[in-house]
């Protein structure tokens, strides 16, 4: 047990980047075998991924639960239908978990067993899952150390104010202090305009 009564299972004995795939395989198999049918989706993210749960729920609401699909930030190399950024996090439907867990190899495996990648772009065509922080996505430089993103991104990469959807779900490579900052900005600060608008709607 860890923290507030949350159960934790050790996927690997040694913690390093070479074990990422083994941890992912373990997680998918564990979800399929230990939780059975009570869940609709499995969400995979790193411990330095900030998740805006309300926007995740908005994305999933209304999607068909009886389809084999994975949803996230789509990259294009290596797999014909593309694959999803692990750092930005992704969602796997229960039916997809059932299929993948019995053929475990996520992008190549998903394609091999007929799991469809569902685009997570919003109505304006903007990305909701992000492999970097808000700052890095906003100020992305094609000559900088993260230049590879343009080659990998499945869709045309946008920067500046079009880097991120208003309904963004995840940001990756977020340190502990940054997590608190995101939380403060998202949930503690209220603009006068929005508060007055809310108060008026309540009358």
TrEMBL record:
The keyword NADP does not apply. Its main location: membrane. Keywords: Glycosyltransferase, Membrane, Nucleotide-binding, Signal-anchor, Transferase, Transmembrane, Transmembrane helix. InterPro entries: C1GALT1/C1GALT1_chp1 (IPR026050), Fringe-like_glycosylTrfase (IPR003378). Its EC number is 2.4.1.122. GO terms for cellular component: membrane. The keyword Transmembrane helix applies. It is found in: Membrane. It is a single-pass type II membrane protein. Residues 40-112 form the Fringe-like glycosyltransferase domain. Pathway: Protein modification; protein glycosylation. One of its GO terms (molecular function) is nucleotide binding. Belongs to the glycosyltransferase 31 family. Beta3-Gal-T subfamily. This is N-acetylgalactosaminide beta-1,3-galactosyltransferase. It comes from Paragonimus heterotremus. The lineage of its organism: Eukaryota, Metazoa, Spiralia, Lophotrochozoa, Platyhelminthes.
